[in-house]
Amino acid sequence: MEHEITLVVNGVARRARVPARRLLSDCLRHDLGLTGTHVGCEHGVCGCCTVLLDGEPVRSCLTFAVTVDGRELTTVEGLAGPEGMSPVQRAFAECHALQCGFCTPGFLCTVTALLRENPTPSDEEVLEGISGNLCRCTGYQNIVKAVHRAAELLAEEGR
Ligand code: FES
Ligand code: FES
């Protein structure tokens, strides 16, 4: 049996017909064409599939699409504003916090939520905040630098 769901994704109301077992990650990628959300492990370990659900980071590979009917989602495609990349995105680019980029959408969503909650995190808080996201390329130093740089940019821009 299929269910008709409506989601507000990146500010736009979207509809999909999904079976009850459809994962949110598959719904975003295959039903809505938003392939910026990456799927690595598919069982909640790597954090690549992280999106923001009503502003809170969730693993879309562990979430059934039907359970978020009517809710608001932000994917990596929705982080940039009309004026271009968000401060978190710019900081990742500036600090070379990505190599292959596979993990990056999940990190960007996680860090966006982290800095909204704690605009001036300590090193320890940054490490804890990103501990649910795995990167196979970077060794994390530049990611940590990027989180601090993003905090600076957000403060400078008064966000
Ligand atoms: S794909 Fe969801 S946590 Fe790895
Ligand atoms: S940049 Fe390649 S997995 Fe993180």
From TrEMBL:
Please provide the record's keywords in A-Z order. Answer: 2Fe-2S, Iron, Iron-sulfur, Metal-binding, Oxidoreductase
Pfam families attached to this UniProt entry? Fer2, Fer2_2
UniProt cross-references to PROSITE patterns, sorted A to Z: 2FE2S_FER_2
Q: 2Fe-2S ferredoxin-type domain location, by residue?
A: 3-79
Give this protein's Gene Ontology molecular function annotations: 2 iron, 2 sulfur cluster binding; anaerobic carbon-monoxide dehydrogenase activity; metal ion binding
Domain of life of the native organism: Bacteria
The EC number(s) given in the record are 1.2.7.4
Record-linked InterPro entries = 2Fe-2S-bd, 2Fe-2S-bd_dom_sf, 2Fe-2S_ferredoxin-like_sf, 2Fe-2S_ferredoxin-type, Beta-grasp_dom_sf, Diverse_Oxidoreductases
Its pathway, per UniProt, is: Alkaloid degradation; nicotine degradation
Q: Does the keyword Ion transport apply?
A: no
The protein here is known as Carbon-monoxide dehydrogenase small subunit
